Amino acid sequence: MTAPVFLAESLAGAAAGSVVTLTGPEGRHAVSVRRLRVGEEVTLTDGAGVGAYGTVAALEGKDRLDVSVTEVRTEPAPRPRITVVQALPKGDRGELAVETMTETGVDAIVPWAASRCVTQWRGDRGVKALGKWRATAREAGKQSRRLRFPSVSDLMTTRQVAELLTGADFAAVLHEEGSTPLATASLPHTGDIILIVGPEGGVSPDELATFAEAGAKPHRLGPTVLRTSTAGTAATALLLSRTNRWN
């Protein structure tokens, strides 16, 4: 089994032969929850592509450990970059979507306040919900042994999503009535790919028109209709295989 991953505040200056100290919540999790011991292998990452590989050199208290670094790797930014615009699902299905998309390999997640969303992020509730999405992406990134964690943006309106689409090299709205299968769409080898996943009630005609004007046409994913919490994961997996990122 590969070594567990922990998020380090900074890996500046980390190099083979150096020692990096892990403290705070991550140190507590490593020492008190995972119960790591001296000599065990670990991976530290800044979540932005840098990974320090090494072994536990010393333990101090319940929330501090020193890691003796044997190797440092920098993972290049993936090409093409995949962003999923995720309409707010009901209940905890948003966190499920973030978790599985992160484990699969998505690069960025954009929460979207679609007109037919039952869930609404307002005030303190919205701040708390966004915090949960970001914490979920961070924990799923560690669980899946990623060195680059996906970004989770602030909540966007339909107008803001349309503005985001103007910089995409390929954009699509996942829609059961789309005439073009995502599996046969012409995809770029670099740049930005953006997928839009609607809410349980579907993407409204006005939203479809707005997105089409911005360059995102409806595409169908397959013969079945997936939940909003699983469609983004399935589409991400399809794109990762078609763009050779899984090769």
TrEMBL record:
Keywords: Cytoplasm, Methyltransferase, rRNA processing, S-adenosyl-L-methionine, Transferase. NCBIfam families: PRK11713.2-3, RsmE family RNA methyltransferase. The keyword Cell inner membrane does not apply. One of its GO terms (biological process) is methylation. It is found in: Cytoplasm. SUPFAM superfamilies: alpha/beta knot, PUA domain-like. It comes from Streptomyces varsoviensis. Residues 22-69 form the Ribosomal RNA small subunit methyltransferase E PUA-like domain. Its EC number is 2.1.1.193. CDD domains: RsmE-like. This is Ribosomal RNA small subunit methyltransferase E. Coiled coil: none annotated. PANTHER family: 16S RRNA (URACIL(1498)-N(3))-METHYLTRANSFERASE (PTHR30027:SF3), RIBOSOMAL RNA SMALL SUBUNIT METHYLTRANSFERASE E (PTHR30027). Residues 79-239 form the Ribosomal RNA small subunit methyltransferase E methyltransferase domain. It is an enzyme of class 2 (transferase). The keyword Cytoplasm applies. Gene3D superfamilies: 3.40.1280.10, Hypothetical PUA domain-like, domain 1. It catalyses: uridine(1498) in 16S rRNA + S-adenosyl-L-methionine = N(3)-methyluridine(1498) in 16S rRNA + S-adenosyl-L-homocysteine + H(+). Specifically methylates the N3 position of the uracil ring of uridine 1498 (m3U1498) in 16S rRNA. Acts on the fully assembled 30S ribosomal subunit. Belongs to the RNA methyltransferase RsmE family. GO terms for molecular function: methyltransferase activity. It comes from the Bacteria.
